[in-house]
Amino acid sequence: VFSDDRLSITSANSMSNYKRNTASDRDALFGGSSGGGGSKHKKNNAANRDALFGEGGASNSGSRATKPSAPKATKATAAKGYKPKQTTVSSSTGRSVLSGEARAAKMKEAEEYRAKAKKAMSRGVFARADPLAASMFYKRAADAYQQCGEVRLERIHREAGAGTQMQQGAYATAAADYARAAELLQISNEESIEEKRKEGCRLYNAAANAFRQMGETGKAAECVVNAALALLWDDETTLLSKEALARMEEAVEAYVPDPMNRYARYRQLGVSAFVDPDAESDVITPDMMALAKEHMVTKAYAYEPLHKLTYVFCHYGEYASALYAVGAATAILEAEGIATLSLSRNYIMETILLLAMGDPVAAERAFLDWHVQKTSYLTSRECKLAEELFRAVLARDGDALDEARSPEGSNRAALSNLNEEMRTIVQQLRVSGVARRQGAMKTSSKAKKAVDDELSRELQSAKVAAKAPKPAQMVVQPADDDVDLDNAFIGEDESSSSGSDLPVGESSSQDESDNEQEEKVPMDAAALNAEMDDLMNDLGLDSDESEEDLDDDDIDLR
């Protein structure tokens, strides 16, 4: 009996242990069950169902399901499109500058790295230069100087590290260091402006050379553009230097070779690298065209640096070079084979620049031969604006020109899509002559006023000299007894004395006319200008602008 009882107790304990183990395994796999009889999975299912279809469902009392809640409205974000990255030059990349003892310790650490880099590049009898180790030490030293806020020392070590990277073939790192050194040079205040421009141009050209070694023609061309713009750092003048103009035109050809640019003839300085200067004719051969196509930059948004150069040219009044840059951007967009809004804006910029140069015939020819060959351009707002502009200039209709470029007119949308420099040129267009810059107009007005003042002074001095009595002139007569001594001193010139044989009536009339001419008051500068304006109006050569616009064209001081 006792054995049977022990056996039943043992089996009961085993069964309870089995159930506990099974419950523990289930809880470990699927989560623990609550004290409600293992109905937690039902509660989870109900919660999931309510999250998907709203709260509700049949309750124990048979209540009606509640109406699902309406989803909350979310605000749709409009696509902003592509925006060029605005690079801001800073001495440190978001790092706080050290001070006190921490700065002194970091400066000491940078000096140690500098000494190690110099030692790695030193040569001896049993040692040779190690550019790999030196580049690592130069980078650590530059980073340490960056944390200390030492702009000049960081720039020097970035440039030294870039040189060692070039020796070992790490062109990407070298290009980045050269570009960083140029950015640090721009914000430096220890060098003069001329030194900063020269060194900045050199550093960006070194970065471009490193990218060419990698085969990155697009990045190399962008560095060439930055090298050209480095010559304009802190430039407040209104004239573009010859060196800067030549560099910027070379940057344009870095993107599009001249054989691919239909406006290559408007290049002012330099010779294309893809054209033989010793060739007898300017005919572009198929081999030259194939070579130019291989070197044209076709990466995405490659036209944006060219637009930047275009606006700089327009700012300085170099409309021919601006047209040369726009032609390069048009060649890139046309090579893609896709008619886009950017291509339409390029076409309208070509028309505006041709009109600004005073050549409406070339603007009409470009419009008919190339622009309207794109079907999408015919229905664009830019096409309507371009046609109205050059037709108004060809017809010499000032009212039509003002209506076409009015900010409140039918072309306000096309004008608003243009750059500020282009909108300024549109407002400066005239039905005759080239577009005048505001600064040039002011300068010409000052020069004209100075000339008028000088002319007024000369006329005033002539008037005073005419009113002054002439001194008596002594006429030397031969010794003769019959000479009339009363006429020895006369107030007339030799011409009047030579006419003494004339009759009395004629002599008196001639004297009266001479006196009348002496009594006439000379005309001042304003009267002379008014008379000239009347004469120009009679000949049909009047201008549609104010008097200030009648100045001579600007003188190129280069």
Care to describe what's here?
The protein is built from 23 helices and two strands. It has a two-stranded antiparallel ribbon. The chain starts with a helix and ends in a 20-residue tail after the last helix. Helix 13 packs antiparallel against helix 14, helix 13 (341-356) packs parallel to helix 16 (381-394) and helix 14 (360-369) runs antiparallel to helix 16. The model is unreliable at 33-38, 57-68, 73-94, 440-445, 471-509, 516-521 and 543-552 (pLDDT under 50). The chain has helices at residues 2-30, 40-53, 101-120, 131-148, 151-167, 171-186, 193-214, 217-230, 242-255, 286-295, 303-315, 319-335, 341-356, 360-369, 375-378, 381-394, 398-404, 412-416, 420-427, 438-467, 494-498, 504-519, 525-538, and strands spanning 473-474, 489-490. Helix content is 60%, strand content 1%. It is mostly helical and 558 residues long.
What brief labels describe this structure?
558 residues, mainly alpha, 1% strand
Describe the SSE topology.
Layout: H1 2-30, H2 40-53, H3 101-120, H4 131-148, H5 151-167, H6 171-186, H7 193-214, H8 217-230, H9 242-255, H10 286-295, H11 303-315, H12 319-335, H13 341-356, H14 360-369, H15 375-378, H16 381-394, H17 398-404, H18 412-416, H19 420-427, H20 438-467, E1 473-474, E2 489-490, H21 494-498, H22 504-519, H23 525-538
Antiparallel strand pairs: 1-2
Question: What is the structure about, briefly put?
Answer:
The chain has 558 residues and is mainly alpha-helical.
pLDDT averaged residue by residue: 77
Task: Compute the separation of the termini in Å.
Answer: 127 Å
- The percentage helix is 55-70%
Number of helices: 23
- List segments where confidence is low: pLDDT < 50 over at least 5 consecutive residues: 33-38, 57-68, 73-94, 440-445, 471-509, 516-521, 543-552
Q: Strand sequence of the main sheet, in spatial order?
A: 1-2
* Sheet of most strands: 2 strands, antiparallel
- Rg, rounded, reads 43 Å
How do the SSEs run, as a string of H and E?
HHHHHHHHHHHHHHHHHHHHEEHHH
Q: Note the overall shape.
A: extended
- How would you name the oligomeric state of the polypeptide chains in this document? single chain
Strand content: under 5%
What is the count of β-strands? 2
Would you tell me the structural class of the helices and strands?
A: mainly alpha
